[in-house]
Amino acid sequence: MGLLNDRVCLVTGAGQGLGRAVSLEMAREGAKVVLLERNAATAASVEDEIRTAGGHAYHYALDVTDYDRYGEIVADVIAKLGRVDVLVNNAAINPPTRTILNDTLEDWRRTIAINLEAVYMGSKLVAPQMVKQEGGRIIHIASIQGFASSGDTGPYNAAKGGIIAYTKSMAVELGPYNILVNAVAPGFMATPMSIVNGVDEAETPDFLEWYVRRRKIPLGRTGYPEDVSGSVVFLASDYCRYMTGQLLVVDGGLMSTF
Ligand SMILES: NC(=O)c1ccc[n+]([C@@H]2O[C@H](COP(=O)([O-])OP(=O)(O)OC[C@H]3O[C@@H](n4cnc5c(N)ncnc54)[C@H](O)[C@@H]3O)[C@@H](O)[C@H]2O)c1
After folding, report:
1. pTM higher than the cut 0.90
2. Domain made up of 8-193+223-256: CATH architecture
3. Cβ(229) to ligand 1 under 6 A?
4. Residue nearest to atom 12 of ligand 1 (CA)
């Protein structure tokens, strides 16, 4: 028996990085995983990986800011699989670093659209079905950048901080319907997102000196998607049944130091 047997779990940005790891782990726990991803090729490859391992997965090409298509997909999932138990709002971008002095309104709007507005809209699209089912889980992937800044990722930070605040609001609004809303804030994770301008930020001399050798990350290493995916499975499972509106920080202890 898996922790998520037969639950229909939607994961956005499921084609690589954390979204892929969450999808694989949910499938191992018995879920029917719906992979929502703008890159159809990576989504299809994760679907193959899950099916080859004996799990259930269904991929859809989706840009999460295309709300008409998003709505059609949610309707199709309900028609074919009968329900929506979990939504993991994971898809995000982290554009090349800029500051308020040299970014543009267009940069700001694009990041906020994908990283925050689509979280609202995706949740809005699944919530009525969860109300009908008398329960569900919505899990947001935030970031430690939602409450601390590296100094050059303003719209990303604003979106992640918005998600953390909105987690509380959604938990209060949806609690009466037995819909639990929680968030996870990863620290540094080794994923394609952490490769900036061709350089893996977890391999630079500064990172290795400060975060690893001097233990700014007390656990002394960057995180891997598999270090974070279990927290998401926990929030989706029956082990989490009296916790809502909360943020799990999964950062190797980074935010516990100063
Ligand atoms: N990598 C890190 O260090 C780190 C740290 C903290 C939080 N996070 C968060 O974790 C989550 C996953 O990040 P990751 O590191 O796996 O990133 P990633 O870039 O490796 O993967 C993101 C996935 O989302 C997809 N995506 C992006 N925009 C999309 C859109 N508009 N519609 C549909 N799919 C879209 C991408 O195609 C990609 O498959 C994100 O919310 C990110 O902000 C990452």
Report:
1. yes
2. 3-Layer(aba) Sandwich (3.40)
3. no
4. 18
Question: How many helices (H) does the chain have, and how many strands (E)?
Answer: 8, 9
Structural domain boundaries of the chain? Answer: 8-193+223-256
Sign of CA dihedral 26, 27, 32, 35: positive
* Per-residue pLDDT in tens (0 to 9) along the chain, 258 residues: 699 999 999 999 999 999 999 999 999 999 999 999 999 999 999 999 999 999 999 999 999 999 999 999 999 999 999 999 999 999 999 987 789 999 999 999 999 999 999 999 999 999 999 999 999 999 999 999 999 998 889 999 999 999 999 999 999 999 999 999 999 999 999 999 998 888 898 899 999 999 999 999 999 999 999 999 999 999 999 999 999 999 999 999 999 998
The string of DSSP letters for 211-240 reads: IIIT-SSTT-S-B-HHHHHHHHHHHHSTT-
Q: Is 193 in the pocket of ligand 1 (CB under 6 A)?
A: yes
Best mutation site among 47, 67, 117, 191 for ligand 1, i.e. most ligand atoms within 8 A of its Cβ?
191
State whether the beta carbon of 222 lies less than 6 angstroms from ligand 1. no
> Is 92 a pocket residue for ligand 1 (Cβ < 6 Å)?
yes
Do 238 and 31 contact (CB within 8 A), yes or no? no
Active site residue 67: no
